[in-house]
Amino acid sequence: MAGSHSNWRPPRSCDVYWCEFKHCKSLFNRFHEYYTYGRAPDCQQWKEDYYTCKEWEKTHSTHAKESLQESERKRVAEQRKFTPVWELRQTPPADWHVPLNQGGPHDS
Amino acid sequence: MAQNSAKGDDFINKEPLQEKKEAEEQTAAAESKQKEEDFGYGLYPERSSSKFKQGSIGESLFTFKHKCHIMLQVAMDTIYKDRHFSCEDCDGTVSGGFDAATSQIVLCQNNIHQQAHMNRVVTHELIHAFDHCRARVDWFSNFRHLACSEIRAANLSGDCSFVNEISRFNFGLKEHHQACVRGRALRSILAVRKVSREEAEQVVDEVFDSCFHDHAPFGRIPHNKKDAKFAYRDYENRDRYYANL
């Protein structure tokens, strides 16, 4: 993170928030939310974030910045709200790119 | 959709059986033990030996290999990936698999005949490949890992879309997606491992909550092209996103 206040900008561009809001409210998405989770989608936050983003563009206020950051951090936390079953790697498996022997039978 | 793991030694046994009774019994016992668990390799006979020589006329005339290659190219929209994809004839009704031993996706050229099906199988197997690449997945001896990847693949590949389920005459609405994911993960496990249904169900139940909510790399469950487009947009924007959190 750069740290300097003047370098900060919203994590997504404002029109993306509006896009996500419209998409969230669409019939298609509402159907799939019900099909998957048995409930209606909660789209309000996208709309609020859009207005906050616009406000920040106009005023560069700290309140708008913090509000957006908090909202996005909540989204990230939601995404990570599960205990992984496995351990993540730092690098791909050693044999990922090893060329195959396409001729004879595989040896174990 | 079924998944492979470590190579079974079943195919390489070329030593002649011994005459002596003890040795015979020993070999028979060893063979039957090996046959008990072949990690699903029986479904993919061409993994060990091919009916036709690669690139031969026989292959081009008598198999669907060329069609498979073309459909794969359309699905991937890029150059054909020689290393990580293989079009082969498979057993039964299985559509594809991921061979963790060679890091290769197997596409069943005799069972995939439509582009939409190919797209879905490629997505499904790519999720296995993605898990293999980004995590320490023990495909061979850890059922939880296997179940987890199958749950994710069924969840995120479009296997359980409303339309696909209707076409299988599985009519369900509220939270049916989850029921479908459970069912298909179960089937995939049972296809490649010699376990009882109860055991498989138990493992799926254990890891379901965790794995159903793991949406990597999409950040959402992609139900249609727009979802996928938005997910890709998020991916392209990731540097800005994390820098400004």
From TrEMBL, chain A:
Chief location: other
Pfam family, one: PANTS-like
Domain of life the protein comes from: Eukaryota
UniProt subcellular location: Synaptic cleft
One GO term describing the cellular component: synaptic cleft
Similarity comment: family membership: Belongs to the UPF0545 family.
Name of the protein described by the UniProt record: Synaptic plasticity regulator PANTS
Organism name: Cyprinus carpio carpio
Automatic annotation (TrEMBL), chain B:
Highest taxon of the lineage: Eukaryota
Keywords, in A-Z order: Hydrolase, Metal-binding, Metalloprotease, Protease
GO CC term (a single one): mitochondrion
MF term (GO), any: metalloendopeptidase activity
Gene Ontology process terms (BP): mitochondrial protein processing; mitochondrial proton-transporting ATP synthase complex assembly
InterPro entries found in the cross-reference section: Peptidase_M76_ATP23
EC numbers: 3.4.24.-
Biased composition (Basic and acidic residues): 7-24
Keyword Protease carried by entry: yes
Protease as UniProt keyword: yes
Location of region: Disordered: 1-42
Family: Belongs to the peptidase M76 family.
Name assigned to this protein: Mitochondrial inner membrane protease ATP23
Protein species of origin: Cyprinus carpio carpio
